[in-house]
User: Which sequence fits this backbone?
């Protein structure tokens, strides 16, 4: 039975699309301001990139953040509707013209991979090319007995084109899979969580090297210098801080390479695909140099070949029919509320605004992380994620304050409109089998955890 369908407070009904970090915080802020809220989530669970984009070795961080999302959504004045995608299951035009919500908040994130700047490169997806988002989704879930999504055959000597923390995650994931498989072939048992502490140490403890395993390791190609990678959170607002940021970045990269044994090639921009027999088999890169922060092509080219190429150059929001979109982001009218251009009562939240889909990309770069923390097994990443998440919540709370002031000026909704919305909500819930017991639904649909398979505490 739906336990939170009728007894809501307030005279306004707000729809939130997307239940992860931004969406759950907005819903939480709205109900505490006396509004009725419904959260529509495209997946069965509302965790977004906490579940599907944050690599699965972040066990404690994932569990903590998903617990926070649960606490926010499991509220008597919030209705939860899983398995509903805006643009498909609910058309945007129908939403704004016929449902009758006082306001609509869109926190659907950024899940579309930014394409490599090579003509027709997208024609070779799954023909030698994999994009970062589906790759990490697969990596996070392929261990599950119930997983029936896209499967990937991971090859050694992969090429990764990227340059941010997300691309470091990609090369780490590649190394974990290839090294674990190679060790298994030798009868040596290990696991992802052990390898994540240090591939180098695991191999050393077994008296082995990558060469002994017949592995070359993957290579990350970046169009700028190694010191330019956006890995440091030191703000580059002075010559001293620029130098410090570059020093920190180099230390992070050096630590990662020494622990996880991938290779790095700076100042190489992808310019052309190499195709044979209908498959992508390599990339032609142009060497670059950096002048006054700008990438300058050199006119010199090099070709690199691989059976597997992964694009990791960022994510952007998916376009939704009826919503004005320009370049890589939705068009907004007001910076404080992030009101959608042309629509009085539609607002954007989180990565749907920034057009940045990697968790770390939205971090406030005004905070500094010490070299001592960075040297500690790269655990700084989890602290960094945590700071970003808390900062996102603060930003959402401030944005909802501005949105709430606008909502309060709207006329109260007629009761028949509210009841009509509840009927539509109930129909969608029934379609997915959701009965209103949020905690039971989470337990029923939570994926099998790798640490549970391994019998590890978490």
Assistant:
């Amino acid at each position: 039975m739906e336990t939170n369908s009728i007894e809501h407070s307030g005279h306004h009904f707000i729809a939130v699309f997307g239940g992860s970090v931004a969406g759950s915080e907005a819903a939480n802020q709205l109900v505490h301001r006396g509004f009725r809220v419904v959260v529509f989530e495209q997946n069965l669970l509302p965790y977004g990139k906490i579940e599907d984009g944050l690599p699965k070795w972040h066990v404690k961080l994932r569990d903590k953040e998903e617990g926070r999302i649960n606490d926010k959504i499991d509220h008597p004045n919030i209705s939860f509707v899983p398995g509903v995608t805006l643009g498909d299951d609910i058309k945007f035009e129908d939403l704004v013209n016929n449902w009758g919500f006082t306001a609509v908040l869109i926190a659907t994130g950024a899940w579309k991979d930014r394409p490599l700047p090579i003509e027709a490169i997208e024609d070779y997806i799954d023909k030698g090319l994999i994009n970062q988002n589906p790759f990490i989704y697969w990596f996070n879930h392929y261990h599950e007995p119930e997983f029936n999504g896209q499967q990937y055959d991971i090859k050694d000597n992969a090429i990764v084109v990227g340059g941010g923390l997300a691309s470091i995650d990609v090369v780490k994931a590649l190394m974990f899979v290839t090294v674990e498989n190679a060790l298994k072939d030798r009868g040596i048992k290990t696991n992802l969580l052990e390898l994540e502490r240090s591939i180098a140490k695991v191999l050393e403890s077994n008296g082995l090297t990558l060469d002994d395993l017949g592995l070359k390791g993957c290579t990350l190609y970046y169009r700028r210098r190694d010191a330019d990678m956006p890995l440091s959170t030191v703000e580059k607002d002075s010559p001293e801080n620029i130098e410090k940021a570059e020093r920190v970045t180099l230390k992070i990269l050096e630590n990662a390479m020494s622990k996880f044994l991938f290779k790095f090639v700076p100042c190489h921009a992808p310019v052309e695909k190499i195709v044979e027999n209908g498959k992508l088999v390599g990339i032609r890169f142009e060497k670059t140099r950096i002048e006054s922060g700008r990438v300058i092509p050199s006119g010199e080219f090099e070709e690199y070949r691989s059976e597997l190429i992964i694009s990791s150059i960022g994510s952007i929001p998916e376009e939704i029919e009826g919503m004005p979109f320009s370049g890589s982001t939705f068009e907004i009218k007001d910076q404080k509320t992030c009101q959608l251009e042309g629509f009085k009562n539609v607002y954007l939240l989180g990565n749907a605004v920034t057009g940045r889909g990697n968790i770390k990309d939205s971090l406030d770069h005004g905070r500094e992380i010490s070299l001592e923390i960075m040297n500690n097994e790269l655990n700084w990443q989890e602290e960094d994620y945590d700071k970003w998440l808390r900062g996102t919540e603060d930003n959402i709370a401030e944005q909802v304050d501005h949105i709430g002031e606008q909502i309060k000026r709207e006329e109260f909704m007629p009761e028949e409109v509210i009841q009509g919305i509840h009927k539509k909500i109930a129909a969608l819930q029934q379609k997915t089998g959701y009965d209103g017991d949020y905690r039971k639904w989470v337990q029923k649909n939570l994926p099998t955890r790798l640490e549970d398979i391994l019998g590890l505490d978490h």
About this structure: The two ends are 33 Å apart (CA to CA). The CA atoms of residues 2 and 437 lie 7 Å apart. The chain has two domains: 13-111+316-453, 115-313. The longest helix spans residues 380-408.
